[in-house]
Amino acid sequence: MPDTVSLGTDHAATVRRYFGLIDDGDLAGSVALFAPDAVYRRPGHPPFEGRERIAHFYLELRTIRSGSHSFDAVLVDGHRTAVHGGFRGTGFDGGPIDLRFSDFFEFDTDGAITRRDTYFFAPLA
Question: Which N-terminal stretch is annotated as signal sequence (predicted)?
Answer without folding.
Answer: none
